[in-house]
Amino acid sequence: MDVMAVGQHIRFLKEYVSEPNIVGAVAPSSQFLAAALCWPYQNHQRKCRVLEVGAGTGPITRYLGSILGPDDELDVCEIQPEFIKTLRQDILTQPDFAEAVASKRVNLLTCPVQEIEGVDKYDFVISGLPLTAFALRDVHDVFKVIRRCLKPEGVLSYFEYVGFRAMSSAFAVGSRRKRVRHVSAYLNRKIRTHQIDCKTIFRNVMPARARYFMFNGTSEL
After folding, report:
1. What pTM did the predictor assign?
2. Which helix (H) or strand (E) holds 153?
3. In this structure, how many other beta carbons lie within 10 angstroms of the beta carbon of residue 188?
4. pLDDT in tens, 98-140
5. What is the third-level CATH fold of 3-211?
């Protein structure tokens, strides 16, 4: 692991300790999970516009930089100040981003996902948001915004840790258990209705499952 990666792990852990309900993980995603989340975009040929939400310390952002097409556009959304600093100073200054940043094809959005504007704007949305750490109304709002922003044939990629929802539901107590179960039931409905594929990634700090959704004009939220 290089020095930059070690620093990112330390910053990620620091943010997790201070804001566990927002960060939702103890380490950034591995390059293997990043590759899986970017798989639909990487296999697309025409000019694209991509949105990454919940970028954290930027492991997925960094991977996106390595595959960003010469005419493609990337918006990166993050609200945690420490992560924004890392993205701005350590990730978006990397050589892979030099031309795209200079030509303003890469933008850092420092706002909540719910404030992202636009309709049918993105071909791909890649999410690192810890949905199981959110209240049900927030999960609903996130999906509503992503669906609004995605083009009709656009693809959403997001991940969850294998078995994490079941474990959280089993060990949580009181209002937290109720919240986790409601969010889990909501996500299960989304998976049944919108999932087009999934990949399990074992080479991650916690094994994770990348899920791919298409909404195809359906009205269920």
Report:
1. 0.85
2. strand 150-161
3. 11
4. 999 999 999 999 999 999 999 999 999 999 998 988 999 999 9
5. Rossmann fold (3.40.50)
